[in-house]
Predict the structure.
Amino acid sequence: MSLPVLTPEEKLKALKKAQEMRSKRAELRLKLKKGSITLREVLEKTDDEVVARMRVTYLLQSLPQVGKVTSEKLMREIGINENRRVQGLGKRQKEQLLQRLG
């Protein structure tokens, strides 16, 4: 399947949307790091496109005291694929994340 041909205006619009999403994700990660928003609040916002499309790995690494090694270990123990996005988490997986990091 070939990629669709986009007009210059469509390309520009797509680039702007991508930049906006990156900015919003960075803002969310900063709020998590500072503690002004909790993991529970983020996981409840699955209807928000910014949260839904964020990779679980990046979300966990945004939490205070959680780095790459801890997030990988935790995801492996719970059974979350390393490429999983927040929208793809099951109820049990969310509950276990909250139980361990809550």
User: Anything to note?
Assistant: The mean pLDDT is 91. The CA atoms of residues 61 and 89 lie 16 Å apart. The helical segments are 8-34, 39-43, 49-52, 56-61, 68-78, 91-101.
